[in-house]
Structure formats: C-alpha cells, structure tokens
Amino acid sequence: MSAEDPPDPKVGSTTVDTPNVKSSIISVACRICYDNDKDEELINPCRCRGTVAFVHRTCLEIWLAESNTTKCELCHQEFKTERTPRFSSRESVWRWCISRSSTAHGVKSDILACTIITPLAIVITYVCLFSSEYYNQSKFYNLPAARWTSISLLIMIAIMLIGYYMWVYSVIRMHARLWYNWWQRTCEVRYIPPSSINITVGITSGVLAGHPNTPVVPIAEEDESEVNAAEGEVAQSTQPSAINSDIVISIGDNPKESTSSYESIV
Fold it and tell me: Cα–Cα distance between 48 and 140 in angstroms, integer?
C-alpha cells in the first residue's frame, strides 16, 4: 500500500491510539493522595468504578482512622478492618486533656465552671433549707406568708438541683463522646481485604470407594478451570481401582478352567 492510497477501514478499525491509552493509564491514581510516584500498588477495595476506584492501602487505612468510619463515602460499602488502640483508656484520657485541640480547651473551661458553680450550689442549698426550716416553726403557723415562703424555698432548691445535675450530666456525656471519638481516631487501622471463599472439591462416595484417605483439596472460587481439572484427575485416578473392584473371579471345580478364564479376563 502506497502513501497516497486511502487507508483500509478494516485496518483502521483495529488500530489503537497509543497516546490515548497512555494518558488513560496515567490518569489512574489514588483518589486520596493523587500521587502516582508511590511504589505501593493500587487496590480496588469497594464497588466504586472509574477514576475513583483505586486507592493505596496505606492511604485508605489513614483515612479510615481519621474519619472514624468503616464505610466508603461514595458507595457506602462496609470495609472489614481491625482497630488497635495506640493508648490505653486511662492514658488516652490524659493525652486528650493535655492536647491543644478545641475540645480539650472546652474540658478545661467546663472543669473551671464546675469548680465555681458547685460550691455556690452547696451554699445556696444550705441557706434555702435553713430558711425553709426556720419559717416552718410553730410560731409562724398563724402566718400564711411564712408557710408559702417555706414551700417556695423547697421548690426553688429542687429546681436548682435538678438543673445543676442535668448540666453536669450533659457536659460529662458530651466530653465522653468527644474523647471516645478522639481515641478511635488515634487507633491504628488495618484494612483486611475480602478473602476468597474457599470451596471443597465435592467427590461422591461412589467415586472414592476404596479410597477413604483421599485428601480434600481447598480451591479458590475464582479458578473454575482448576476445579474442573482437579475433578478430572481424581476421576481418572480412581477409575482403575473401581474396575479392579468390580472384577469377580469365580473359581470352578476345574483349576485349569479357572486359570484360563482369569487369563482371558486379563
């Protein structure tokens, strides 16, 4: 074909645009770090497709630890992970309190507020109880205002104590949740890839007759051709024994006849 001849459409349909292929290969990168220069291999751990399908395993483990989740943010597939805490519970509480995060500053301010409010609540409760008991004496029975004052003081004490304990409970619960999330984020996460489901080569007892000690071979589910090949080899290896077991030699009255019949069978 000369240079002036028009290109053959059949030949043109089978050609591959190499620059496009090269650019598509280069575009495949980790969706977390976008770094193609890493020596680590890319994996596809979830149902995502396209340019966001591949990640580095270390990048995925760091992201799972920082986000404190076990699911993909796009396809919501559950990852099988193993979390190992870096600190014990007591050590983590101490490290969380001395950290420079905003939650740690919130803990310090709440502790300061609690140290100020708690003595005030105790003093106010004592004064109110003392006043209520004073107005409840017998000399004030003829004064309705004194009785209502005593009841009002008791109601005020109850409301104040309930509000105080609710505030303490909410503060402790909030900081406990923040501490637990921080503790989980500091864990070392190890991603466990989905292991291939092992299947057993099923061989019937009729095929294995006379071979009770034949080992059972676990084979990966994806290699169906290897499974079929293994079944064929087992069937071929057991066929002669089955034939030999079916051979029955009847020895008659004449030893010569039995010998000749055996030789004819063989």
Answer: 80
